[in-house]
Amino acid sequence: LLVYLRVFPTIGPIQISFKRIIRNTLSFLLIWVVFLGAFSVAMAEVYSSAVYTKYGIINECIASKINGSDPHSITKAQRMAFRRQCGSELYHQLIPDVVRGSVQTTITLLWALFGLIDPNDFKSIQDVETYFGEALLLLWLLTAVIVLINMMIAVITDAFQS
């Protein structure tokens, strides 16, 4: 049916322009996904750095797991298992729920575009991660709303005019 509608002088050009708009929108979505992935990974890394900066707490946790025995008497594998377990416990204490991993951060950034997140959800125990995380969130919102939406409008307008 669409093939026959190209013959009509009013519907034919509109159909061709819609085809171009869809093609250009898909290329725009690829750029948008790249931006979203980059910001998601960056925010997840900013907040997960809190775990790596707290080695003193991890060592205290390992000492509590050893239960007063000689630290030199445990094997290297046991020590690594304790470090992993303590790091995991610390990870869940220090990192807010909204930025635990790249997938959760991606979902959070998508909801942020619609204004459905609370800025207090990004609070961390350490102030440095909180400030950098909020700055990245602000940068994401400015980039997504102003730059990327204007780019999409330009792409669609160009496709419609040509």
Cα shape: elongated
> N- to C-terminal separation?
24 Å
Instruction: Report the order of strands and helices.
Output: HHHHHH
DSSP summary: helix tally: 6
Major sheet description? none
- What is the strand content? under 5%
Structural class given helices, strands, pairing?
A: mainly alpha
Helix content, binned percent: over 70%
Write down how many β-strands occur, each being a DSSP E stretch of 2 or more residues: 0
Low-confidence stretches: none
Rg, alpha carbons: 25 Å
What's the average pLDDT? 77
Describe the structure.
With 162 residues, this protein is mostly helical. The protein has six helices and no strands. The chain has helices spanning 2-5, 11-52, 55-66, 76-94, 101-113, 127-161. The longest helix has 42 residues, at 11-52. The radius of gyration is 25 Å and the shape is elongated. The model has no long low-confidence stretch (mean pLDDT 77).
